[in-house]
Amino acid sequence: MNAGGEDLLNGLCAAEANRRLDAEGFNELPSGERRSPWAIAAGVLREPMFGMLVAAAALYGVIGEIGEAVLLLAFATLSISITFIQQGRSERALAALRDLTSPRALVIRDGRQARIPGREVVRGDVVIIGEGDRVPADGVLIAGDHLQLDESLLTGESLAVRKRATREIPAALDAPGGDGTAQVFAGTLVVRGSGRLVVLATGARSAVGAIGSSLAGLEREQPRLQRETRRVVLIFAVLGLVLSVSAVLLYGFLRGDWLQALLGGIALGMSLLPEEFPLVLTVFTVMGAWRLSQSRVLTRRATAIETLGAATVLCTDKTGTLTRNLMSVATLRTSGVEWHSTSPPEVIAESPELTRLLETAALASDSHLVDPMERALVALDGSIPRAPRERVLLREYPLRPELLAMGRAWRCCRCCSAGR
Hints:
This protein has helices spanning 14-24, 37-45, 48-62, 66-100, 152-155, 207-216, 224-255, 258-272, 276-294, 303-309, 318-322, 346-349, 352-363, 372-382, 413-417; strands spanning 104-109, 112-117, 126-129, 138-150, 161-162, 183-184, 189-201, 331-333, 338-340, 391-397, 407-412. It is of the alpha+beta class. The protein has 4 domains: 14-23 and 102-215, Calcium-transporting ATPase, cytoplasmic transduction domain A, CATH 2.70.150; 37-97 and 221-309, no CATH class; 326-386, no CATH class; 388-420, no CATH class. Strands 1, 2, 3, 4, 5, 6 and 7 form a 7-stranded antiparallel sheet that branches. A hairpin with a 4-residue loop joins strand 8 (331-333) and strand 9 (338-340). Helix 4 (66-100) packs parallel to helix 9. The chain is elongated and about 110 Å long.
């Protein structure tokens, strides 16, 4: 047992895990409230632009311009329907992504291994991680076999870092980053080795959770074009109201026909009201969201299209954004021959030296194929036409500090059966 009462061998008991889950909440990132179809519809109907179109259509109906009123209502209904459908699709896709990104974790409960949803991991759990796993929570490595993690999610550093096990459980974790530490963080990827960790922080209390909390607290600024349009509409609305009231009063006092004065004032106000502005803005932003969806880009709010179109400088990181975070073999070279990626893979099969070089590199690669370089070597080796050979893996020598190389011993079954 350690100072916090957790058993590093048997893990937490189920009752204690449930108590901590109830007290501290699920191990999941803070996210905005999922919007139901009714909430999306209410948000769309509250848009001032939509209200203005409806008001303009109503005024056209009052003065007898039924065709203009129906046309405005039709355009308003069409644009709002497209917006509603687009936002509904985005919400459903985002909900599906949230479900897919909820990993499962292998923990020790009551002395036995159990695979549970990652959101049910609690502080004090002993978690077993291996190659290809996402670390479910922040913690300290207490046992590890040449463990390497990709922490680029938190540090931006694409190179994997080594982790060393420790029996000292700190009260708090330091900032992510650094080679040879015992601290592991939620969301990082195990690229080599395996180990066990004791969870110290979950959910919003983790390092990646702190980032999510800060993003959730950002205030959304109204797009500039929408602000300017509202200002212009407000100016015209005030001017139209003043002129309409003046026209009604003057016509009523001078002619005495207050009904005609009221109709004339409404007609004057409608002529000054720029009802086309919100219609054009709504239609074009919805069209932009629709075109982006054809390129598999989700737009949760149509106003984001304007912000994207106004961008003059785009700052991105390289790996995973401008590149695919994948490797490919560019050159094979021996003492007598070379192969470049501009040539077809079949050329490699014509050279016994290149074939043996590539085959040796592929056989030395790990079976799980998490490392991008190993994936590239095995993929290229698989594209070379050759007769299949049966092999059995006898022993594996993992990467270690005293020898920064990985070794694997294979037995060729065909050679053994031939007495070689």
